[in-house]
Amino acid sequence: MADNFLEKKRESYEAKKAEWLRKKKHLPPSARTLHKPDDEAL
Predict the structure, then answer these.
(1) Mean pLDDT by 10 residues, the chain (42 residues)
(2) What is d(CA 7, CA 14) in angstroms, rounded to the nearest whole number?
(3) pLDDT computed for residue 15 by the predictor
(4) How far apart are CA 23 and CA 42, in angstroms?
(5) What whole-number distance in Å separates Cα of residue 42 and Cα of residue 14?
(6) From CA 1, how far away is CA 9, in angstroms rounded?
(7) What's phi and psi for 2, nearest 5 deg?
(8) Closest by Cα among 30, 10, 8, 32 to 20
(9) d(Cα 1, Cα 10) in Å, to the nearest integer?
(10) Cα(19)–Cα(30) distance, integer angstroms
(11) DSSP letters along 1-42, please?
């Protein structure tokens, strides 16, 4: 029973991750990064 539960959770996780990655790839490069590291500030 526990194996079935874990398998279903894993499948759900993989499906959500795939959907998230698919949506992420369609964003323009500037929207992908939340913030850029400030190398000049160092």
Answers:
(1) 84 95 78 59 52
(2) 10
(3) 95
(4) 34
(5) 39
(6) 13
(7) -65, -35
(8) 32
(9) 14
(10) 20
(11) -HHHHHHHHHHHHHHHHHHHHHHHHTS-HHHH-S----STT-
